[in-house]
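Field log, afternoon session.

UNIT: design team B
ACTIVITY: writing a sequence onto a fixed backbone
BACKBONE:
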């Protein structure tokens, strides 16, 4: 059974930083592309960042470039999201996901989803 477990969410003041973590089990982690997504109340789920299986290449939508950094540690079956200069518009539930190809991440159709972790940014 595949499990993706996110952690690191919480409340932070505007301008602050958070680092999210996601630990995967039940899959061959090093063969999967990984991604971070978010969904704010009343809005569609959107891609924040994706990373290929080796970690050598990452993808960010234009709207996410500059403040977010995705990384992974295949030895730890983990993927991370460093978030800097947070503002209230970053308030959302953040989800980790795994896809056999980066295409599935970029098209918001991964194979597996985590349960999400809440990030709240107060001004």
């Amino acid at each position: 059974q595949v499990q993706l477990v996110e952690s690191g969410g919480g409340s932070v003041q505007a301008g602050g930083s958070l680092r999210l973590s996601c630990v995967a089990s039940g899959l061959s982690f090093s063969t999967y592309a990984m991604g971070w997504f978010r969904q704010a109340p009343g809005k569609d789920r959107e891609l924040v960042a994706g990373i290929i299986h080796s970690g050598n290449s990452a993808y960010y939508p234009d709207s996410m470039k500059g403040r977010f950094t995705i990384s992974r540690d295949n030895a730890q079956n983990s993927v991370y999201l460093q978030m800097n200069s947070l503002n209230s518009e970053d308030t959302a539930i953040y989800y980790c996901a795994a896809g056999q190809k980066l295409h599935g991440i970029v098209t918001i159709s991964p194979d597996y989803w985590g349960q999400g972790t809440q990030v709240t940014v107060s001004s």
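LOG NOTE: The first strand starts at residue 3 and ends at 7.
NEXT ACTIVITY: expression trials, pending approval
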